[in-house]
Amino acid sequence: MSDENGTADTPAGSRDTDARDARHAQGTPGDPPGPRPEPLRFFGTTWVDHDRGYTARRAGVAVGALAATTVSCLVLRFAYQGLAIADIGGFVTLLVVVMFAICSALAFRHTWDGFGKRPDPDRQASLRGLLAIGFVGSLVAYFFRALTEAPGEKLHREEYEAALKQHEKRTSRRTGNPSKKRRRG
Question: What angle do CA 127, 114, 99 make, to 5 degrees?
Fold first, then answer.
């Protein structure tokens, strides 16, 4: 941080993550040294120890995702009825229904896979339109994942535990200057 105005030394959007991570790892006095867990949407860091209302949050996310799915399906039903009233033809109506079904299935699969591994940013950007059309599939994936764990918890837990092991390896190395070591003789 800059001493003058309290802003970060690196500009916003900078790729200098090593310096930022080094400052983040130091933390504030009283914080335990080492890596910190990445917060999850709706859960913060409660997923680490399953404390501070984790179970209630998971239930809330499941109920919220199911309610959003229900409302979304009602909106799509009204859109379908609008197409029927407009009498645009059976072929176009069929195309719209198939499009939403396929996009929802693809969005479900993409969202479900995103809970287990980090998505490729370029692929994510190219699928943005498809995911927007298939939003119902993403909501259903969120609902089903929230029944067993916080969505994304498995991936974050694996990364966090790997970071803890790496930190443990780094801090358990020998200390001191080996050239100052006394020789027996």
Answer: 40
Selected residue with higher pLDDT from 174 and 136 = 136
The Cα-based distances of 40 to 111, 152, 183 in angstroms read 15, 7, 52
Distant-in-sequence, close-in-space partners of 66: CB < 8 Å, separation ≥ 6: 143
pLDDT in tens, 4-24: 444 444 444 334 434 434 434
Euclidean distance between CA atoms 89 and 37, whole angstroms: 54
- Contact call for residues 94 and 175 (beta carbons, < 8 A): no
Total Cβ atoms within 10 A of residue 19 = 12
Q: Specify the amino acid at residue 92.
A: V
Q: With H, G, I as helix, E, B as strand and everything else as coil, classify residue 40.
A: strand
Question: What is the Cα 54 distance to its own chain's centre?
Answer: 16
Instruction: Give the pLDDT band (50/70/90) at residue 45.
Output: confident
- To the nearest 5 percent, what fractions of the chain are helix, strand and coil? 65, 0, 35
Report which DSSP code applies to 157.
H
**Per-residue pLDDT at 175:** 63
For helices 135-148 and 54-86, the axis angle rounded to 10 degrees is 160
Indicate the pTM of the whole model: 0.72
